[in-house]
Every structure is written in C-alpha cells, then in structure tokens.
Design goal:
Largest sheet: 5 strands, mixed, barrel
Number of helices: 6
Strand content: 15-25%
Helix content: 25-40%
Distance between the termini: 51 Å
Order of helices and strands: EEEEHEEEEHHHHH
Structural class: alpha+beta
Strand order of the largest sheet: 3-5-6-7-8
Length: 223
C-alpha cells in the first residue's frame, strides 16, 4: 500500500520502534486518513521527531482496565501505524497534521526512552494483509451498514452527503464510519481488531444498534 509518497509492501517496511500517541476514542485504520490538531508540548516534540525521521506515528487506545505504567496510562496491545502525509504550522504553537494509516501493529514492549513522548517496539507481522492495496470485499452486507447508518442519523437529527456515501467503496465507507463514530475506547478497539472488512462491518452494525437501543431506553425512561 502507499501512504503519501512512500510505499509499504510488507511488515519489514515498518520501523521496529515507533513513537506512540495514546488518544482515547481516536481510531486510525489502514488506508484511511486521520486529521490531528497537536498542541501539547510532548506531542509537538513527537511530530518534530517523526518529521525528522520516517514520519511514522502509532495511534493507540489506552487500556483503563489495566494498571497505569510509569509513563502514563496502560496501552492496548494493538494499534495502527500511520505516516504523516500532511503537515502545517498554525502560527499559534500548534501543528495540524494528517495521518494515513499503513498497518496495524502489536506492541512487544514499551522502551525506556528519554523522549517526552512514549515509544514502543512493535511488530506488524500478524497484519500482513494490511499492506495490500484497497480491499474489495463483496461479502460485506452493505445494505445492513447503510440501514444502520441511516437509523443513527435519523435518531440524532443528522444528515450526510448520500451521493458521496453511495460512490464510496465498501472499505472506504466502513472505515470512515468506524473512525468517525462517537464510541468509547472498547468499541473503537473492537473495530480496530476486527480480522477483516466483513467482520468490521458486522461489528460496526452491532455496536451502533446497541447504542441506538440504549438511547431509546434512556428516552423511554425520561418520558
């Protein structure tokens, strides 16, 4: 797969040690784009280091059920590495960047780094298929995804550009919905760890339906 001007063809193309950005609720998936507004000094330093190197950052969820580590909250075992494909300085001590997802990774260990940001030794070997080109999975139940998406929009009085939705590939559609959905860390992690696109679509539908059912239950209680 290609991210910006760089091609990544196999797990060995990903650096063994990468900076990680623990950001609860922020999900990055292979071949998808995640905009980030960076303002904390330690993460400004992380972006500086990444831009001076291979431009790789690992997005990771925090694990609130595990004991905290010396450097901060415990990290989930699996994250997604992305390449900085867009970078801008704002003039008020912020960076606005876009990460393009490359592949998922498993943390082998967090290293004792002198940097203000955290770094981990990782492997992408379990996720070799992430390095392929755009996935086309006709086994995805696209009508079910769209029905659930429409129900969510209706429940929250929202609208969308249906022309763009209809023209999007299964992978683009499902990954975009998974990344922008306002779910918690556990749900986002389940979407990340889904073994294939069909499983991710089914997980997305199930999580959204449960969210709608909870919302309906609260409304009924309030009435």
């Amino acid at each position: 797969m290609k991210a910006g001007n760089c091609a990544y063809q196999c797990p060995e193309d990903l650096a063994a040690i990468i900076p990680v950005f623990p950001l609860p609720g922020a999900l990055l998936l292979p071949r998808a784009e995640l905009p980030l507004n960076i303002f904390e000094p330690r993460y400004l330093a992380m972006i500086d280091a990444a831009m001076a190197g291979k431009r790789i950052i690992g997005m990771i969820q925090t694990d609130d059920d595990a004991p905290a580590k010396p450097r901060g909250p415990a990290l989930c075992a699996i994250g997604c590495a992305g390449r900085i494909t867009s970078f801008a300085e704002t003039g008020d001590d912020r960076y606005v960047v876009t990460l393009t997802g490359i592949a998922r990774f498993r943390i082998l260990e967090e290293i004792d780094a002198a940097t203000p940001f955290r770094q981990c030794r990782v492997t992408a070997m379990p996720y070799q298929t992430d390095f392929a080109g755009c996935l086309r999975d006709d086994s995805v139940d696209r009508p079910s995804v769209l029905r659930t998406f429409r129900a969510y929009l209706d429940a929250h009085n929202l609208d969308t550009d249906w022309e763009s939705v209809d023209s999007a590939s299964n992978e683009t559609l499902i990954n975009a919905l998974a990344m922008m959905a306002p779910f918690g860390c556990a749900e986002k992690q389940a979407l990340l760890e889904a073994p294939d696109l069909r499983s991710r679509a089914e997980t997305l539908v199930a999580i959204t339906e449960m969210s709608l059912a909870r919302d309906a239950g609260r409304s009924g209680t309030l009435q």
